[in-house]
Task: structure prediction
Amino acid sequence: MPTDDERRTGLSRTLYEEFRARIVDGTFPAGTPLPSTRALAAERGLSRATVSLVYEQLAADGFIESRTGAASRVAVGATQATPSGRSKRARTKLPAPDRLAGSLSPIGQHIASLKLADPSPTAPGEIDFVYGPLSGSDFPTLTWMKALRAVERQRSRRLEYEDPRGNMELRRALQAHLSQARGLACSVEQLMIVSGSQQALDLCARLLVEPGGGVVVENPGYRMAHHAFEAYGAKLLCADVDAYGLVTEQLAALGPAQLAYVTPTHQFPMGSFLPIARRHQLLEWAAERHAWVIEDDYDSEYRYAVRPEATLQSLDNRGCVIHVGTFSKTLSPQMRLGYMVLPPALVEIFAGGKRVTDRHAATGVQRALARLLEDGSYDRHVRRIRRLQQVRQRALLDALTRHMGDEVEVQGAASGLHLVVWFRALPATAERALVDAARQQAVRVHPISPLFHPSKTAQLLKRSAGLVMGYALLEADIIEDGVRRLAKALLQVRQQTG
Amino acid sequence: MPTDDERRTGLSRTLYEEFRARIVDGTFPAGTPLPSTRALAAERGLSRATVSLVYEQLAADGFIESRTGAASRVAVGATQATPSGRSKRARTKLPAPDRLAGSLSPIGQHIASLKLADPSPTAPGEIDFVYGPLSGSDFPTLTWMKALRAVERQRSRRLEYEDPRGNMELRRALQAHLSQARGLACSVEQLMIVSGSQQALDLCARLLVEPGGGVVVENPGYRMAHHAFEAYGAKLLCADVDAYGLVTEQLAALGPAQLAYVTPTHQFPMGSFLPIARRHQLLEWAAERHAWVIEDDYDSEYRYAVRPEATLQSLDNRGCVIHVGTFSKTLSPQMRLGYMVLPPALVEIFAGGKRVTDRHAATGVQRALARLLEDGSYDRHVRRIRRLQQVRQRALLDALTRHMGDEVEVQGAASGLHLVVWFRALPATAERALVDAARQQAVRVHPISPLFHPSKTAQLLKRSAGLVMGYALLEADIIEDGVRRLAKALLQVRQQTG
Result:
């Protein structure tokens, strides 16, 4: 139940809105005397105090002028001087949602033209082999809450903007972690904390690529990275991916480029580790072209065999590699925490870019994460979920063999949170039918075609149908069930297309 | 003390690094056979297991090729093919930090040219009348921790990317809050949560302003907003600010513009509430030019008299006003949470822009803030700190009267977390001397001149010296002490310049 105060607020709000609307739309022109508070109170059945409050507010907002001992009057200039079509309900007459009141920038136009559709939500009971989301039950809730509590108890006396590169506690802890876990050597000066790796890509696109400038990308590849570059008007130069990753032999023929975006530790989506010889070729190409190279190290935590740890950054003696990492694959994509290891020459420019963009990453979660890294609980967590994910991957591989055997070919099982599954003798054009048939079996699967650049349709026609199958959300028995149903769907599609 | 495992990690890391360096720099060319694990273990005093591990890692990283029953050999292509100047210590020979390996984009060049210097840190014992930071002791720590705990306990089953406009719980709570506290009517669709208001400005600059496009700004004004526009190559069109805020009569003469950035509720730094007639003029100008208008509502919570609540957004019947707000002034600037109320026609474009930029704001803090808004504790907190800030402002006003009386003129006391203090008969050119003399008295004060656009030096010469004095960090007795010392500094400066 509303209190008296709240009721009065409600009544005075209504009266205020009524007078404001009539003043703005010209029903009460400038100079119109307002009724006395006594008269209006009597007329509306309100207290004089309520009416007085409304008049005070109208005066404070500049709609009326009050003078002691005289009637309040509508202020000069308070009326909207719309030359025609003045309406009593002007406020509610918003233009059609697609009518722009002003213009868009070239970047705005690029972004408006991107296809950034949301996937339709998963229905209850559906088994979703999606790649990207993590399971809430894998999150180290207790450890995280303990860290948050500790951080909240030690709030600093002065809440002010931080270094745009991020909180120093986290950068120190991260430096030690990267050295230990990735053999990556850098100073804390070179480390910048960002709002997920997407922001790292956005900053690179913005600060390094001019409109029309060439950006080499892997095809198939991580489309959200491509979109980050396209947003700034970059020209995507697609290099093929074979069983070893980016085909570096193609680089020379791709034309002028300012940047290359690669996933050398675990090519997305194909899953290969870029061989050392190709790494050298890539860096030589970058040196010749004076191009930057982004190394997106998005899921190196999930190597299930001997873990290759050499980063492209460690081979870079020219300061052209920007190493990007994330906590979205080990903690949560909702946490929005990633990092960049910047070449020394770019540190100041990127710090400036980050500051103008959004000042710095939020402090609380950074400090909590620093604690997890410092006290070893992050490493323990990673070891734990690596085992969990390996069990899930094993279940998926087993189920694929059991239910589809020779009909499928699997790529990328050495690491990561997804597999690429190719369907032998099923053309790529049948992917949609397979997805739909699976949906009939309450299974969500995700075709690989959208990860190819749309301009490469010729490649599409030569390929088999393929799926990117994530397993991070699913337990072993569900995975088995899902693959069994997928096999049914596949049979159906083969019968239809066969 | 390191465990055996860690010691082995340390030793194997050293050995790994040594071999990698020699392979990469060509000391061990392709095809070179490696010593047997037995021989190397004996030579280095290591276990064979350690050496085997290192060889496995080198093979996994592609530096060597292992064959069962034969010596491992350096892999073809593992050597860096630097044509000249090959060095055994190539890895450590980074270029000079100012030598760029590639080029910068126009935006990168703009940002590199901005003056974004950090203020020097406050020394212990210094009294800092800075505007911006909040006091850690004003933060509602217990309420916040309770909200964080509740949120952590209700983690969703599926951790996935959210709507780029932000968490729906927060957007619903915020919609109700804005309606109640600001009389602002909007749908949850129009609301977008951003990483502080700076990100809102950055998105507007990026999506709405083309390079060379005009942006009207207040002079003096909020320089970090100006920088956001300058980063994208915008041309700043400076309009003067008088006692009533932006001088809208000047708009017509400023030339073509795509956007205007204003602080109508509380002009920064001068503190005025833009009168209704000027608001109409601004919106008419925007309609004629097809320009967008950003309404930065950065501290409307701190009105100490009757609170004007009319927003520019509520007068907009064309869908050209973008309303921007923040929690940096009521909770903490380190939290990085702000919001935008978008015209319907811009919703989709800004959602796309936010998604490409950094996906969405972090989920945890959004959900915790939603709880504060829903259960009324945010409102209670705002009422509490408004009283606290008013006490501090009163202390500052009293101290200024007591110690400097007629020597100063104060502007902007009706609201906010700062005052503008003008020093009569002291020229603007003496600001630096005043700041330095105050520093000698262990008082930090902040001149107003940097808030004027650098191109307006003529205006500077006509002005008196002025300070922007913030009080949010200081308690009443410290404020009194600080102003007493500032008066001493002023006397000193007057004697020097007089």
